[in-house]
Design brief:
Two copies of one chain form a homodimer. By secondary structure, chain A is an alpha/beta fold. In chain A, about 45% of the residues lie in helices and about 15% in strands. In chain A, strand 13 and strand 14 form a beta hairpin. At the A-B interface, helix 1, helix 3, helix 4 and helix 10 of A face helix 1, helix 3, helix 4 and helix 10 of B.
Chain lengths: ~375, ~375
């Protein structure tokens, strides 16, 4: 059976990228690498829509999140943490692990954050030094209103807006400099179409000033050290060379397509997917602001979502994501970020219709596919 | 021009491993990955010569070193740090970054540590909680006497021996359990023949007890969390999947060759290389205990080592390593760890003879090659 990957990370890696990474390894302290890294740095600034340096860390996305927390804040610092899913929880765990005092802005899973609640929490906690949030909460498929939150934090000199952009960067527009975002983090295995193993972090000038003030212990994720090396087209420690070479290739692909077109493609695939699942009588898990990165769909009442996911895999060789924590078995998540085009979506919607049919759900075969074709035509 | 890589990391990646890593990416939360990871865990225990779990971190080797420091020790703890090269310095920097109070056992670059000095420092600092040392100091090509140091630490219940085995594991025998080593760290891009991006850490029971007691902030490198996930054939955060797949392949290769044969091969290549350079009238940088991972050679008096390194690259497409810090330009380092066999060594010794000749050093062409052939015949 052929294999299909429709989970929101890792996402499929283009064949040309796989092959380029399979070339003999090169040494990172030689000119060939530095020349390539210089182009990578420029490509990342384009992708992040920033003039700032985008640091390349050899780590999972979580390592990039840790770098943000350990470099900007210090033990005892108060921060506002938006929790409306698994990855919001991760911000909270990280802040607690580093001895910060998080104030939680909790929202139900499936709902976007309310900026007014964040403004209120900042007003109530005038010593708060940051707002930590996801741009796209991968566990629920919901976008948080980053632009609106940035309007609140931008005018506060002592408050940094720290955004986990792991399923946002390269999916939808989030111009870091224009909106006044202070930290953006992403990972390699999402819209960047690479295997996991690289994390990226960019900091505003405000954020760099906070780095100077924070006394938290850090070494591997010491961002100032990374910045200093990057300016010489290097990394302080041996980087994941093969992934950086792949990165060079994907950044060229993204630039060739053009960021606006990349965003438009994601939006088009997302809209079509949402239309198709609704046409099948299913409900989106996102109550509002669905993310263009992935579509989280409620499993029909009475159906076992884990069995549904298993059906996808066993009958069609297709991996989709299930729900995490308390929504385990209750939602499935279909990715359309990264190396996806309209043709791919027929596969996953086709598999969804047939899997539901197989499990006894009264789906009219073709109903989703029809809307998909209409939306993509 | 063809390209040749003889630096002590990254080392060449076998073609079959490159191709296996170029297969379409799989999802890490699915059975296919967990099944593979179970075999990886077993292969790593074999490689580390331990019954303990060997944790797989998505990071450079330095990330593994940080994990050891931040999990075992706490702010204010006294530790003995062996410094006899660049990587000994790194242990020191890490300890200082995390607020420890290191007591330095400094030895000149090019010399192995004296275990009696370490015993004395532990006697003088009875509150010391660890000894941090390299098994093979990559910057100098010297092995430190780990077995002798382990005899000193093994009888002290409150002192952990923490070994950077980055150019030792898979090069020469260092049976962790038998010798009573408490922490062994390595990286993927050395004897493991993979691209950089994975670090490995194994802890003794004594070390795990110390983890329970240390209150240092950590999250991404929280080793207890990694242990708990590993026991379920998982990692707490998205791992560098393609590198883990390559790891599965190299571990099979190492097991097929047999660890004893792997060690013997490294020793044979190292002995032949050392014999060849001496036959050319050159001097080893290691005053004693040269490592089987690499051979550091003194650049002849009056010759510019940076120009010599450049000659290798420009005339023969060959990357060797130079010296770091105060020995920059004064030594060159030739690797023979990982995917090397006798045939490879003719290339590097041939290039060394011709490069020296080109630069006016009175080498008798063939003198090194002759000894190489004699030693390898």
């Amino acid at each position: 059976m052929k294999s299909y990957l429709f989970a929101p990370g890792p996402t499929p890696v283009p064949e040309n990228v796989l092959l380029r990474m399979a070339a003999p390894i090169i040494h990172h302290r030689e000119k060939a690498f530095s020349d390539l890294f210089e182009e990578v740095r420029e490509g990342l600034r384009y992708l992040f829509q920033t003039k700032q340096e985008v640091l390349v860390l050899t780590a999972s996305g979580t390592g990039g999140m840790e770098g943000a927390v350990s470099n900007l804040f210090a033990r005892g610092d108060s921060v506002v943490v938006v929790r409306a899913g698994k990855f919001g929880q991760r911000w909270g765990e990280l802040c607690e692990a580093f001895g910060l005092s998080p104030v939680y802005a909790d929202f139900p899973w499936g709902e976007p954050a309310d900026p007014e609640r964040i403004r209120q929490l900042l007003d109530d906690n005038p010593s708060a030094k940051g707002v930590l949030v996801q741009a796209s909460e991968t566990s629920t498929g919901v976008m948080h209103p980053i632009r609106e939150i940035a309007e609140i934090t931008a005018s506060r000199d002592e408050v940094a807006l720290v955004v986990d952009g792991i399923t946002a960067v390269g999916v939808f527009a989030m111009p870091m400099d224009d909106w006044g975002i202070d930290v953006v983090v992403t990972g390699s295995q999402k819209a960047l179409m690479l295997p996991p193993g690289l994390a990226f972090v960019a900091l505003s000038e405000k954020a760099w000033r906070m780095v100077e003030a924070s006394g938290t212990s850090r070494y591997y994720f010491d961002l100032k050290k990374h910045l200093k090396s990057a300016q010489k087209n290097q990394t302080p420690y041996t980087p994941a060379i093969s992934l950086v070479i792949g990165l060079h290739e994907v950044l060229s692909m993204l630039r060739e397509e053009g960021l606006e077109n990349v965003f438009a493609r994601h939006h088009r695939l997302a809209e079509a997917t949402r239309g198709a699942v609704k046409a099948m009588g299913l409900e989106l898990f996102a109550k509002a602001s669905p993310s263009d990165a992935l579509t989280a769909v409620k499993v029909p009442e009475g159906m076992d979502g884990i069995a549904l996911k298993k059906t996808f895999l066993e009958r069609y060789g297709m991996v989709v994501a299930g729900g995490q924590d308390h929504v385990k078995g209750k939602i499935i998540r279909i990715a359309h970020l990264g190396y996806f085009d309209p043709m791919d979506m027929f596969q996953v919607i086709g598999a969804l219709e047939m899997s539901l049919h197989k499990m006894g759900y009264p789906v009219q075969l073709g109903s989703g596919l029809k809307v998909l074709a209409e939306k993509l035509a």
